[in-house]
Amino acid sequence: NAGVTQTPKFQVLKTGQSMTLQCAQDMNHEYMSWYRQDPGMGLRLIHYSVGAGITDQGEVPNGYNVSRSTTEDFPLRLLSAAPSQTSVYFCASSTRLAGGTTDTQYFGPGTRLTVL
Amino acid sequence: GDSVTQMEGPVTLSEEAFLTINCTYTATGYPSLFWYVQYPGEGLQLLLKATKADDKGSNKGFEATYRKETTSFHLEKGSVQVSDSAVYFCALSGDTGGFKTIFGAGTRLFVKA
Predict the structure, then answer these.
(1) Closest partner CB to B46 (pick from A56, A58, A104)
(2) How far is B88 from chain A (nearest CA, A)?
(3) Any idea what DSSP says for residue B84?
């Protein structure tokens, strides 16, 4: 199992450009999510999905779109990049416990994004 | 809503010292509790977990006990090594959070040789 993979590892964008961060998992997990991690700060949830075709907003969704057409893939789209989106982005997947709560989250290695 | 509070860092220890990182939570019902570790330049990975009161999670010499009476899940290790230098996150997954995992702010640990 490759686990959770993310591409690219590093990316530099200019303000106003758009791009897609790729995320894939091969563990057949129902739940997938995107977080951003800024220096000295914890994780903030951007968007999440509880299954193919189902997505919802986290705490910092503005400027980002997601879709989930398959169980395996959960891409994150930056619509018009801004310097405030400079961050490290992590994708994670998990199974669910009885009752619907989240079990262990498996994280990808991250994408380090700089917006100039 | 659900929340997690963990001690602020950084924590600096000498090799072989005893480690405690405090974590307390607020949640209704019976959440599952986790400790994740993040090494430099990497994503988070599970260190240990406990899914019900009085359970003890353990891994790689680290331990934490789910204490419902004090709503705590403190991380301990008897003798830290330089290789334990990392950021540690306490987290919970509870009924009122639905899908979401609630993470603490993280505690950075430096271990000196």
Answers:
(1) A104
(2) 10
(3) G
Residue ranges in chain A modelled with pLDDT below 50 = none
Asked if B71 and B14 count as a contact pair (C-beta separation under 8 A), the reply is no
- pLDDT tens digits for range B18-65: 999 999 999 888 899 999 999 998 999 999 999 989 999 999 999 999
pLDDT at B97: 55
Judged by CB atoms closer than 8 Å, whether chains meet at B43 and A90 is answered as yes
Cβ–Cβ below 8 Å for A31 and B89: no
How far is it, in rounded angstroms, from Cα A26 to Cα A112? 22
Q: What is the pLDDT of residue B96?
A: 63
Cβ burial B55-90 (10 Å sphere, 16+ → b, else e): eebeeeebbbbbeeeebbbbbebeebeeebbbbbbb
- Residue B22 pLDDT: 97
Name the nearest CA neighbour of A102 among B101, B68, B52.
B101
Identify which of A41, A45, A108 has the shortest CB distance to residue B43: A108
Q: A68 to each of A21, B16, B43, how far by Cα in Å?
A: 13, 47, 22
